[in-house]
Structures are given as C-alpha cells and as structure tokens.
Amino acid sequence: MVKDKKLYNLLGVEPTASEAEIKKGYRKQALKYHPDKPTGDTEKFKEISEAFDILSNADKREVYDQYGLEAARGNAPAADQGNPFGGAGGAGGGFSGFGGAPGGGGFRSSGGGGFSNADAFNIFSQMGGFGMGDDGFTFSSSGFGGQGGQGGSPFGSSGGFRSGGGGGMPGGFGQRSQPRPDPDTVSMPLPVSLEDLYKGATKKMKITRKDPNGSREQKILEINIKPGWKSGTKINFSNEGDYQPECGARQTIQFVIEEKPNPIFKRDGNNIILTVHLTFKESLTGFEKDVTTIDGRRIPLSRSNPVQPGFTTTYPGLGMPISKSPGQKGDLEIVFKVDYPTSLTPAQKEAINTNF
Questions:
Q1: Choosing a second label site near 203 at 20 to 30 A (CA), which of 30, 139, 284, 309?
Q2: Are 237 and 143 contacting, i.e. CB atoms less than 8 angstroms apart?
Q3: What pLDDT digit, counting tens, does each position of 246-257 carry?
Q4: CB-CB contact of 320 with 330 (8 Å)
Q5: Cα separations (Å) of 330 from 37, 270, 292?
Q6: What is the rounded distance in angstroms from the CA atom of residue 85 to the CA atom of residue 300?
Q7: What is the rounded distance in angstroms from the CA atom of residue 129 to the CA atom of residue 125?
Q8: What's the whole-model pTM score?
Q9: Taking Cα atoms as reference points, which of 17, 20, 49 lies closest to residue 33?
Q10: pLDDT band for position 137 (50/70/90)?
C-alpha cells in the first residue's frame, strides 16, 4: 500500500499510474505552472518537477511508496521505525549503500542538498521544454539553452544533470554535497511596435557577455515575437548571460516586452481603438470618410444623422490576434471625437440661435 499520495496528486495521476501516464501528467502540470506562463507558479513548478524526478525512477518510486517523501529524498528515518535503510547514513545522510538499477530511469538532481529551482528547469529542458506539445513559446537553439533548442537548462548544452557525488541511486541517494546557487536572471526591456505585436516579428539582439576565463564576447539572440503578445510578456534565454563561477553556469537573459506608443491606434487588451475626429458641422449634418485598419484594409464610414461625441461603433474580429487562441482576434472600436470650434462669429451664433 502506498504510504503517501502527495507526489501522485501533484502530477494528477493514480499510484497505479504507468510510466507513460506519469510522463503525461508531468507534461501537463509543468506546462501549466512554468514560471514563464500566465498561470506560472515557481514553487509549484519545483514541486511538480521533484515529483517527476522521484516517480520516473523505479527504485526511488518504490522507496517513496513504502517509506514516504523524506525517505525518497534520502532522509532515512530511524531503523526502529521499520525502514531497513535507516542505518545507511542516518537522517540526511542518504542511502549510501543503495544502488540504482542498471540503466535505471529518473533524473539526477544537482547534489543531495535539496531539490532546487535549477533542477526543476533542467528536468523541464531534458523533457523537451515548451516543445512538449504546448502552444506556448518556441525558440531556436539559442533560446532557453537546452538541447534541441527547447526548455530552460541552467547547466548549459552539455546535457545531463549534475551528480551529487558518490555512488548510489540516481537522483541523490549517494553522498551529499553542498548545492550550488541558481544563476541570476538579468531583465531588460524590449520595445516593440504595435504593428509588430499585431503581425509578429523576429528581433535580433546583440549582447556582450563574460566567459569563464573572464574575457568578453558578443552573441546575437534571436527573439520570435508572436502575434498578440502583450506588454509584460517575458522571454527567457537560460545560460546565455555572464558566466557565474559560483553557480557553474551563465546568467539567464530575460527580455520584457514593452509596447511602443502608436500615433493612430491604441490597444485595450485584445481590442484596438481608433479615434476618428469630426468637425462640429460633420457631427451635426453627417459625413463620409474612409479609415485604414492596422492591417491595411480600408473601411468606409458614413453618417447622415447627428453623431454624439464619444459615440463608438464596433467591428468584431478586426482587433489584435489572441495569442492563446490561434485564429481569433479582438475587436476594432472606432470612437468619434467632435472637435468643437474655439470661437464663433456673430453670423454663426445667429445661425445657431435661429435654427436651434
């Protein structure tokens, strides 16, 4: 009987789940809670990754099912509590004599000193990153630093996870070592025009970074702007910044989208607002005009009756693309603004008084 179901619940699977079901559960939850997603939660993402780290390894899963999470982490309870491994290193010492199955699955975390954020991103990278089937961000090999060009790997492109040293079961059941800190994240704004956010674009950014030997080098990062992205969208390039000796990895470069002001159009969520100016006479007697949308199409406008200041007419489907719903767009809102005269001649005042 399973002692604790917490890790299975984190992946949304039953304790009887197969290897394929565990992978599917991890994929779904990791893509939902990845910190770069709107639904992201860093701590939840780390818990999900640790759950997968344990349950994807047959030996570690067996220990977890029998003795619980702390035992699976290598923190063995005392022998008199019924754990035959209680004397193998003591609490916090790890199962120094417990070897993993030959060629066993699972992932090795960055040392036995605790499961870190770096371990979580590394597992995400090794499992394919955002290329696992989500419709979210997709980068070339320069993005997110992982092999195959997907996911965020704070450990570079050499592949694999850092071992905690010593023998034993994969994932930290060997000799413990002090974990390294996570690499820093350096954020910088990326101004993008509303037109590029509407149709999508590719931006190339040149960065200067520090090598492990302390010298400087330049590198070009290619950023694929997806149609419909908004201000505040974050694009991460792991392991692309300055090398940090204390981490054994490079910084993460993070670009934050900033929408440039547009002289004609204004964005409101997924909608686009276009203000049409009318003279006082046009607002009273009517008008015929053409306006051009952000994608270049022309829309004829005509009125024969008076138009109130601030009157709005809506054109569905002519707004911004919705990045999370491919093929769908917001609305175009045309707002009429009446430009009242700043002064009137006596004849004009007389005409108004006579007719109104």
A1: 30
A2: yes
A3: 888 889 999 999
A4: yes
A5: 21, 5, 17
A6: 80
A7: 5
A8: 0.49
A9: 49
A10: very low
Q: In what order do the strands lie in the sheet with 185-192?
A: 185-192, 252-259, 234-237
Structural domain spans, the chain = 6-135, 185-259, 265-355
Q: Render pLDDT for 139-183 as a digit per residue (tens, 0 to 9).
A: 333 333 333 333 333 333 333 333 333 333 344 333 444 566 777
The β-bridge partners of 249 are: 244
Neighbours of 72 (CB within 10 A): 30
**Sign of the dihedral through C-alpha 88, 92, 94, 95:** positive
Reported as type and span, the H/E element at residue 243 is: strand 243-244
| Confidence at 126, pLDDT banded by 50, 70, 90 | confident
Sign of the C-alpha dihedral computed for residues 17, 18, 24 and 29 taken in this order: positive
CATH 2.60.260.20 holds for 185-259? yes
For the segment(s) 6-135, the CATH number from 1.10.287.110, 3.40.50.10780, 3.30.70.20, 2.60.40.1180 is: 1.10.287.110
Q: Report domain 265-355's class.
A: mainly beta
Dist CA 185 CA 85 (whole Å): 40
Buried-state track 173-191, b at ≥16 Cβ within 10 A, e below 16: bbbbbebbebbeeeeeebe
CA–CA dist 26, 106 (Å, integer)? 13
> In one letter, which amino acid is 102?
P
Q: Determine how many CB atoms are found less than 10 A away from the CB of residue 289.
A: 13
CB neighbour list of residue 218: distance below 8 Å, 6 or more residues apart: 206, 207, 208, 209
266 is written with which tokens? 């204004």
Spatial neighbors of 15 by CB under 8 A, at least 6 apart, are 2, 5, 8, 65
